[in-house]
Design brief:
Layout (H helix, E strand, L loop, with lengths): L2 H17 L3 H16 L4 E5 L2 H14 L11 E3 L4 H10 L7 H7 L5 E5 L6 H13 L2 E7 L11 E5 L4 H24 L6
Length: 193
């Protein structure tokens, strides 16, 4: 095996081991997502680039399914409407592309889930701030200390790394664990390995 590949794999394993310390927080967040749906709330997800893909991934698992045949759950990814995004970015600022959507859609009882590896994306920070002002709960998936986005997150799953690839790998792991919990809840079952 090439040394660079061995180093990548070792770094991944070390990050997985360090992220294991977040297990109880991930479980708690999974329960919170279930509670959001139980009270009739909607989950809104957002992010930029690879984090937008993570946001879409979570929404897909919620509206579609993870492993079980069950009812679809109300979730929307705010980065998927190109017309709305470009309208807001053109008429206002790129920093506003998510916050204007959150202001228009999110309500008390909803959950706004933001993915950002650094926690410094201005449009993500603005969206979380508006979500809190609207009375929605906020959840941040980030790395390191969560950056400025952490100050506007009611709950944060912070991967103990500053390497973008490792953070995104752990975001996928955590969203899969949460998806298993939500999927089982919606089907009236217990989560499985």
């Amino acid at each position: 095996m090439a040394d660079w590949l061995r180093a990548q794999l070792a770094d991944h394993v070390a990050t997985v081991q360090a992220t294991a310390g977040l297990a109880e927080e991930v479980r708690s967040v999974g329960a919170m997502v279930c509670e959001t749906f139980a009270r009739g709330g909607i989950v809104y997800t957002l992010g930029n680039g690879g984090s937008a893909a993570d946001a879409q991934h979570l929404t897909g698992e919620l509206v579609g399914r993870y492993k079980r045949d069950r009812r679809p759950l109300p979730s929307v990814t705010l980065s998927t409407d190109a017309s709305v995004l470009t309208c807001i970015a053109n008429d206002y600022f790129y920093e506003d592309v998510f916050s204007r959507q959150v202001e228009a859609l999110a309500r008390t009882g909803d959950l706004v889930v933001a993915f950002t590896t650094s926690g410094r994306s201005a449009n993500v920070v603005a969206a979380l701030k508006v979500a809190q002002a609207k009375g929605a709960s906020t959840l941040l998936f980030a790395g390191g200390d969560g950056g400025l986005a952490r100050t506007h997150a009611d709950h944060a799953l912070l991967v103990p790394s500053t390497v973008t690839a490792r953070i995104q790998e752990m975001h996928t792991l955590m969203l899969h664990v949460i998806s298993e919990m939500v999927d089982a809840w919606a089907a009236g079952e217990e989560p499985q390995a």
